[in-house]
Structures are given as structure tokens and as C-alpha cells.
Write a structure and sequence with these properties.
With about 525 residues, the protein is of the alpha/beta class. The chain has helices at about 15-25, 40-50, 55-60, 75-90, 105-110, 125-135, 150-165, 200-210, 235-245, 260-275, 290-295, 300-310, 325-335, 350-360, 395-400, 415-420, 450-460, 480-490, 500-510; strands at about 1-10, 30-40, 65-70, 115-120, 140-145, 165-170, 175, 180-185, 190-195, 215-220, 250-255, 280-285, 295-300, 345-350, 370, 390-395, 425-435, 465-470, 495. It contains 19 helices and 19 strands. The protein is globular, with a radius of gyration of 23 Å.
Length: about 525
């Protein structure tokens, strides 16, 4: 093993860029392992755990860029380093478009006076300062960065509220503003349904289901995952509801989140009762009675929320393909599985997609484990080992510490896929493949060899292994959604038509009772 280290002093790159570059660096032919990151204490901790933290790296400062390459020889590492440095130089460009660089938010605002939104993606130690500077310049903010304290988040949102501005985040990964996807997002048609989401992939799923049902999105406003926690109080969701209620283009509003804190839910429901437009509420795992009492429209799943929103715009249900569950397929899969094959293993890139499938399983089975289970009794103590029905969110900190998010690099799941395939009690392995802006250029392609190997492992032991895949995307996305689906199908993967159907099919495949 040969180790190559390069530290670039006072050289900053945002986390989104570095995750993408790190993914590409690890795909270089002569690289066994590459680590491209800022020299933060968290990133040094990752290297320490990998026994790769040298004294030189230990001395690096927060504002320094670390490039570490593990390869077969010094010569190969030098070649790999040149290739990695080329990755930093490649920037997407459009004909006739000039990209200028500015040292501060203030100088950017001065030189682009018509701008009204800033996307902040810097180390958490500096994120609050930059977000505050943008707000003080009168800019709406999408704060992609995480590692921001609750106290700082509250202060930023209070400042934005006082100025009538959006403060999306921290840890806000998805938005569509004026038909432009920001960070992670899908290409959906423009329309009259506004989405407000405390969940990135949940918001994406809602937007693509609305598109699939023939509707369109006016705005998709992300709040950040903690907005509905008690300490934050739902400031961003409440402000966004008022903004969309006053927006002429928006005719229906949809809310998507995990269940909020009880005190925050009361505030949201009270705002729904004051809203002059229909509000569809999809709080995954939430309850219906209070939503209906407040005058809202309750939806149990993202698919149901999208359908109800589209119907509220005047579309007729009989004109839509509702993608009902395929019961003959369910019976066919059940017949292939042995009696001992009774468990689901979900391997998800999207947190809300994982949640939605997990809650579907929880409706039918008493013991469902996960790294994101709210019930501590069923939260995995060791995320490297599955128990009974297990659903894993590979985008959670348990799996992303020092690694790219799985939406950027879905191959993080390969080892676990093969591990689950060896378990004789597993009947179905469920996975998502997320398309769109910011995601991997070919999420299906990087998993195909592993999928075939997983199938072969089970076949060698004379077991059928059902692999269920869901491709989150639209016909307008790139890579082509239909091509991704066809390649999965050719590898023997069963395709689900939505996140909601993914959960329902998974639980029904392994059920040992009647088909209905």
C-alpha cells in the first residue's frame, strides 16, 4: 500500500463540490481509497478511525483542503493526484453564460443587484455567518450546510421572519424556486401546487408524484429537518404557508414532514384553519383527526398527498392512472419464497422513502428495526447487523461520516446488499434509485453488478431473492428514467411505481397469509 497526501493551505471548497469530487476520485482506476475533504475536526476523526491520520494531517487547519490517496504505488498515486486536481478544474458551463466569482455575499449582491436568493454550502463553522450576511443583504437563503446549532438556526429564522424572507435550512437539501431546482431536485412541470417540506426526499417524491398525475409545482420550499422541532417552532413552515397563501400562482398547498412536536403541530393546524386555500397534510406516521378538524386534507402517504392535491386543482380521478397494487404479482412472489424467508431489508438513499416503507411495514408487523426508528426499543444498536425487518437510511450520519451522501454515491450500499443476500431468512431487499439535479449520473448503473451477484448468491442456495426497486424521477429527468427502469428489470428487479407502493409491496411479498 502506498499513501499520498496533499494539503492545500487556505483553500476552501463547499461540501457539495467535495462530495462529488471525492466520489469521482474513488472511481479512478488505480485508487484503492481516496479522501478529499476540508480539514475539520470531524473529517480528521474519520481519518483517525481509518488509521490514516498522519501528524501532517493532524496539523492542518479548518480552512485547509486535504487530499489523501491510497494506491498500489507511489507512481500510480502521483498519476491519480493529477487526475483528482483536474476534477477541481472541470466546471459545467453554458453557452453565452458568464460565471463570476465574488469573495463575499455583499460584493455578489452589489454586482448582481437583481439577485434575491443565496444558496449557502460551506463548513458548518462558517455557515451561520454567511447565512446571516445574506439575510442582512435582503436575500432569501437556502442553507444546505449542516452542523449548525439549534440556537443559531432559531436566530437565523427569527431574523428572516422579521424581514419577510425565506430561511430554508440548515440541512435543507431540496427546493424548487420559480421552476429552478436547487441542490437536490427533479425536473417537474410548472403548475399551481405549492409544496412545503421538512424532508428533502419526501418533497422530491411529492413533486414527482404530482408530475406523474399530470399536475405541476408552483414552488417547493424546504424548511430543514428541525423546523418542526419544539425549539424552532415551525417558523419556516408557517412563514412559507403564508407566502404561498398570498401567491397567485399557487392554488393548493401540500405539507410534508415526519410528525412534528405536539406544540408545533398546533401552530401549523391553526395556520391551516386561517388559510384561504386547500392544504393537504402528509406527516408520515401522523394522525388524521386533528388535521380534518383544522380544515386540512389528511394524506397517509406521499402518493395519496399528491393525488389529493392534483384532484383539488380540478383534475378528475377517472382520467388518472392510479398505479394500484399488483395483487397477482404479490401472489406470484409469495409462492417463490420459502417459509423461512419472512423478512424485509430496506436499503435506502432517501430518508423519507425509508420512513414511508418502514411505516407501511409497522402497520402489519410488530418488530421493525431501523437506524432512524423513533422508538428506542427498535432502533438498531449496531447498524452493521440487521434484525428481523430492517430498514436502513444510508443518508443518515451512521453511514455518511466521511463519505459522500448515497444520492451522490449509491455504491455505499453494495457491501450491505451482498450481506443481506446471504441471509436465508430474507425474502425481499428493497432499494431506491434517485434521479435528478445533484444526484449520481447513473444510480442504477453503479448497482447492477452487485444486484446480479446478490441474485446469484441466493440462487446458488436454491432460494429466490426478490429485489424491489423504486426509481424516483420524471420523464424530464436525466439520466432517462425509463432507461434506468429497463436496466433494473433486465437484471431481474421488480419495479415499484411510487414510494408508497414500495412499502406496501415489500410488506405484502413476505406476508405468509392470504393475498388480500
Amino acid at each position: 500500500m502506498s499513501l499520498k497526501i496533499l494539503i492545500k493551505k487556505n483553500t476552501y471548497f463547499d461540501s457539495v463540490s467535495l462530495m462529488s469530487i471525492s466520489t469521482k476520485a474513488n472511481q479512478l482506476p488505480d485508487v484503492e481509497q481516496a479522501f478529499v475533504a476540508m480539514a475539520t475536526e470531524m473529517n480528521k476523526g474519520v481519518l483517525r478511525n481509518l488509521n490514516l491520520l498522519t501528524p501532517e494531517l493532524e496539523e492542518a487547519k479548518n480552512g485547509d483542503l486535504m487530499i489523501l490517496i491510497v494506491g498500489s504505488s507511489d507512481e500510480k498515486n502521483e498519476e491519480s493526484l493529477l487526475a483528482i486536481e483536474e476534477l477541481f478544474k472541470k466546471k459545467p458551463s453554458a453557452k453565452g453564460e458568464h460565471q463570476a466569482k465574488y469573495a463575499t455575499v455583499a460584493s455578489a449582491k452589489e454586482n448582481v443587484p437583481g439577485s434575491n436568493l443565496a444558496v449557502v454550502s460551506v463548513n458548518g463553522a462558517y455557515a451561520v455567518r454567511e447565512a446571516r450576511a445574506a439575510l442582512e443583504q435582503g436575500l432569501n437563503v437556502m442553507l444546505f450546510s449542516d452542523n449548525v446549532s439549534v440556537e443559531d438556526e432559531l436566530a437565523l429564522k427569527q431574523l428572516a421572519h422579521s424581514k419577510g424572507l425565506l430561511m430554508m435550512g440548515p440541512d435543507c437539501g431540496t427546493a424548487i424556486i420559480n421552476n429552478k431546482a436547487l441542490c437536490f431536485g427533479n425536473h417537474v412541470r410548472q403548475g399551481n401546487i405549492g409544496i412545503i417540506g421538512a424532508s428533502g426526499t419526501g418533497s422530491q417524491e411529492l413533486s414527482v408524484r404530482i408530475h406523474d398525475f399530470g399536475g405541476g409545482v408552483s414552488q417547493l420550499i424546504g424548511t430543514g429537518g428541525r423546523d418542526l422541532h419544539e425549539k424552532i417552532g415551525g417558523i419556516m413552515m408557517l412563514d412559507a404557508m403564508r407566502m404561498l397563501n398570498a401567491d397567485d400562482q399557487t392554488k393548493v398547498i401540500v405539507l410534508i414532514s415526519k410528525p412534528p412536536a405536539a406544540s408545533v403541530e398546533k401552530k401549523v393546524l391553526a395556520e391551516i384553519s386561517r388559510c384561504s386555500k386547500p392544504v393537504v397534510v402528509c406527516f408520515i406516521g401522523g394522525k388524521e383527526a386533528d388535521v380534518v378538524k383544522a380544515g386540512g386534507v389528511f394524506a397517509k402517504s406521499t402518493k395519496e398527498a399528491a393525488l389529493k392535491a392534483v384532484l383539488l386543482t380540478g383534475v378528475k380521478e377517472e382520467d388518472l392512472d392510479l398505479h394500484p397494487l399488483n395483487w397477482p404479482l404479490i401472489e406470484e412472489v409469495r409462492a417463490k419464497l420459502k417459509p423461512e424467508q419472512k423478512y424485509i431489508r430496506g436499503l435506502f438513499c432517501g430518508g423519507t422513502l425509508c420512513d414511508e416503507a418502514m411505516y407501511a411495514a409497522m402497520e402489519k408487523y410488530p418488530k421493525v428495526y431501523s437506524n432512524i426508528q423513533l422508538n428506542p426499543e427498535y432502533r438498531l444498536k449496531d447498524v452493521s447487523k440487521s434484525k428481523e425487518h430492517t430498514f436502513l437510511d444510508f443518508g443518515d450520519d451512521d453511514f455518511t461520516n466521511g463519505k459522500p451522501h448515497p444520492m451522490i454515491d449509491p455504491s455505499n450500499r453494495i457491501e450491505r446488499l451482498l450481506q443481506e443476500a446471504r441471509d436465508p431468512e430474507v425474502g425481499v431487499i428493497t432499494m431506491d434509485f434517485i434521479l435528478g439535479y445533484g444526484s449520481h449520473a447513473d444510480p442504477v448503473g453503479v448497482m447492477l453488478d452487485a444486484i446480479r451477484e446478490a441474485k446469484a448468491i441466493a440462487a446458488k442456495e436454491e432460494r429466490h431473492l426478490e429485489i424491489l426497486g423504486y426509481v424516483l424521477g420524471t420523464d424530464l429527468d436525466r439520466p432517462n428514467m425509463q432507461d434506468q427502469i429497463e436496466r433494473l428489470s433486465a437484471a431481474g428487479v421488480t419495479i415499484a411505481s411510487s414510494s408508497a407502493n414500495t412499502g406496501l409491496l415489500s410488506r405484502e411479498f413476505v406476508c405468509k397469509g392470504e393475498a388480500k
